[in-house]
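Q: How do we represent a protein-ligand complex in a form that can be generated token by token?
A: Start from the inputs.
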Amino acid sequence: MPQWLIAPGPASRDLGVEVARRLGLEVLDIELTVFPDGESKIKIGREVKKASVVVIQSTYPPVDRNLMQLLFTAHKLSEMGAEVYAFAPYLAYARQDKEFLKGEVVSIAVVARLMRAAGIKRLDTVDIHSVNALAYFAFPAHTISAIPLLAEYLKSNYSLKDPIVVSPDLGGAVRAEGFASVMKAECLVLKKVRDKVTGEVSVEDVKVNLEGRDAVLVDDIISTGGSVEKAATLLYKKGVKKVYAACTHPILLGDALERLVRAGVEVIGTNTVPSAVSKVDIAPICATHLSTICT
Ligand code: R5P
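Then emit the structure tokens for the protein with ribose-5-phosphate bound:
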């Protein structure tokens, strides 16, 4: 039987320690130095030969730094004789899963090759943007969902008035329907159009009357907040009383949260990305999932 260790990466220290505690596994400390020019150096302070190590490192911004730290850690552990598994609660580059415009790189395919080269034998993540991205990995790659946890959180902590669950786009319909089924609420799917060159989003009008109801927008990622802001504006025009936005990955770049608050949106996220709105802890589902692997 291999010895299982949890190595919380620098971007997911608290989450990793909590997952290890829940699994009753030892924590393997990763020593990190960041040089003045931004380069990261990783050091593993103990023997790991023949151990199986799960590195938990989310790749939220700074995306490339956190991704490189994951790759460096995995590479070193693997070189030292460990079997390495990666758990990336937020997997960056999953939105770049095809050549949308001719000449564009399929970035997630490159990430998959880098992980393989670093010795990673399996990848797990949470609410990957598109499951198509998993096909680029030449080793087992899986996604679990925090959507039921988010829905339970809203159900238990808010008294929502005749709630309607809303997906800001067609791609998020399955997520929103799952959320709605936990909340036992109706679901509405909006049609978002994103300009492939400028990234500018617009949301098509819908013929519905939502007078006096609460709405919960459900998305995997809130990054600039543009998609949720546009959808919320439309929902308020339709008579919604209050808009909530539940997301797995609250990246919330720059002043995104302030803009959403000004637009009347209350944001609730998970701790795949630590933030002021990371109210839902994913440690329980990570631990349950990893308990099926760490045996
Ligand atoms: C895209 O389809 C995703 O599901 C999110 O809706 C999107 O990434 C959110 O980005 P932003 O907050 O920048 O609009």
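The helical segments are 13-23, 63-79, 107-117, 147-157, 173-183, 226-237, 256-262, 283-291. The CA atoms of residues 13 and 167 lie 31 Å apart.
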